[in-house]
Amino acid sequence: MRVRSKLLSLMHLDNTYCLLTVRHVKILQSYFNLLDIHGDKSLNDVQAYCFMRLLTDLTKDEIYQTFDMLDVDGSGEMEFSEFFILVCVLIAVQDHVEKQFIYRHCRTIFGLIDIDGSNSITPDEFRALTYLFDFKKRAMHEIFYEFDISGDQELDYREFRLFAMACIDKQQELEKKMLEKAEEMREKALEKEKKKQELNQRYEKVGIIAYCIIL
Fold first, then answer.
1. 98 in the Ramachandran plot: left (φ > 0), alpha (ψ -120 to 50) or beta?
2. What average pLDDT does this structure show over 174-201?
3. Which residues on neighbouring strands pair with residue 56, listed in sequence order?
4. What would the pLDDT profile of 24-80 be if each residue is shown by its tens digit?
């Protein structure tokens, strides 16, 4: 997921607890009240969709899946407390502090992803985390079964916490390799352009010398 709007750019999570300050919570409450056009202190799925569509690059299916995941009480509405969690996730992604956020609020995230309430996370349930925090599927699949200590293809809370941290480290490793590869390609392109310019200059000199000889 990418946060593409500047709406939340002035909001940041506290460095210690990865939560919004009181001042920012008040601002967020104002945002929520503006979105709550019906005045019933909650947002329906359409209102939540419009908000997330504006701020993120998530698809329609991903947005509605996120809405269902955050609708903890199954009311079909998103109350302010659920909206607060959503915005905190968006800000964590925006500021690239996903690892700190997941570490501080691992229990909350575990509860959100554990849709069936089985106190364990399956690979299918964990996919919700891959698009929210922009984990690459490759990073997830490479290490999921390494942390499935019980071998039941599910992660309990303890296994999930270790797995989530490892996923972030793996993701950062993959991104670092991609950046290094991009830098290498850029340097090769610059070197190729430099050689092309040198060759053109050489041809120009040869042309000038040939012209002088003819004269």
1. alpha
2. 76
3. 3
4. 999 999 999 999 999 999 999 999 999 999 999 999 998 998 898 888 888 889 999
Encode pLDDT of 114-168 as tens digits.
Answer: 877 888 888 777 776 677 776 666 556 666 666 666 677 778 888 787 777 776 6
Residue 68 neighbours by CB under 8 Å, 6+ apart: 115
DSSP for 113-163 reads H-TT-SSSB-HHHHHHHHHHTT--HHHHHHHTTTS-TTSSS-B-HHHHHHH
User: Model pTM?
Assistant: 0.70
Residue found under tokens 């050689």: 195
As given in the structure block, the two tokens for residue 188 are 């090769």
Which residue reads 């009480």 in tokens?
Answer: 73
Q: Which residues of 163-179 are buried (b: 16+ CB within 10 A; e: fewer)?
A: bbebbbebbeeeeeeee
DSSP, collapsed to helix, strand or coil, labels residue 39 as: coil
Phi and psi at residue 43, in whole multiples of 5°? -115, 135
Q: Measure the CA–CA gap between 1 and 62, rounded to whole angstroms.
A: 10
Three-state secondary structure call for residue 23: helix
Q: Phi/psi class of residue 169: alpha, beta or left (left: φ > 0; alpha: ψ in -120 to 50)?
A: alpha
Give the CA radius of gyration of the chain. Answer: 25
Which residue, among 77, 75, 74, has the nearest Cα to 43 in the 3D structure? 77
Q: Going by C-beta distance under 8 Å and a sequence separation of 6 or more, which residues neighbour residue 209?
A: none
